[in-house]
What does this fold into?
Amino acid sequence: MNKYQVDRVALHLVSKDGAQLAKEEILLGDFSLEDQKSIQEFFAAHLKHIWNAGEARTTCSAQFQATSEIQKYYENLRLDQAKFFSYSGEMAKLLQKAAQKTRASAGVLMVLWLRTDGDDRSFLALLKLEPARADKIALSQSNGKLLLKLAVRHIDQALPEPGDQVLKWAITPHPNRSAYQVKVRDEEGKELAQYFMKFLGCDARLSERKQIERILQIIPDYTREHHRKVDLSTVVPTVLADLEQVATITPDVVIDKIKENKAFKNFSEDNFRKELEQAKISDMSVSADALRATKLQYKLPSGIIIKGPRAVMESQIKMVSVGNEVEFRIRSTKQYEKTYVG
It folds into this structure.
């Protein structure tokens, strides 16, 4: 389990109409040790959610554009943290500017500078929060004595608790996929808000699942087009099996494994890289674990679905053309289990 240590904190109120900047940084050392512990636990719970969030339509890896101001702030802070508070205000202004002429809701921009166990990097986290009224139920107290009576404590501007909705967040560098610079999430819509990406100055990259889908398509397609004499049914699975043995699969790794396979005579690295570029995976980075976990599914017009681990399906399922039809032949021993499921 990761342990997080937040060293610097700043809060600013941002809406599409303006930015209300805080007058000073929040100094954690001004709180009691007990309160510091509670605040760090609050941050840690939110950060754990960021670290563990899976990629989907609203969560992605991203790369900074050359003109990104956020990247410049991060790189400068790595050298000199003294500018943290002034930079946080500039970030709030950037967010407000990007939100103009949009339907973006108002919120608090929380800027964190932090570290985590087992990682030498410092991280910059940006969370857009929506404070709301909250009612906490507690035991009442009088003259320093706890009474066995219920009391309602009203909080007009409570920050979202871990698990509650955080409108948007971004963290750099990417905590899970080292090949990418940013991890971004947007809870407000079905897709990432373009104004938030504009604020960050970054471009989204495909998820691991999408990158795997595309490389699994490109390798056989490229083989059919440029190496017609290669036996797809044996050579391509061999290349994929080799890829499963490395820690991280990148374009360079894929090209090396293809070159190592002597069946690909006169292999053109330049042409293959062009295929990756067109498929938007020229900077692909996926774990071998994700490739091994990939499932392959055949859905037939009859409604029958054949599904299983990719490697097993490719080795045990054979498609044979019979006239105008295709037969699916499953290789197996004579021992098998038949079960009715209903």
The two ends are 40 Å apart (CA to CA). DSSP finds ten helices and 16 strands in the chain.
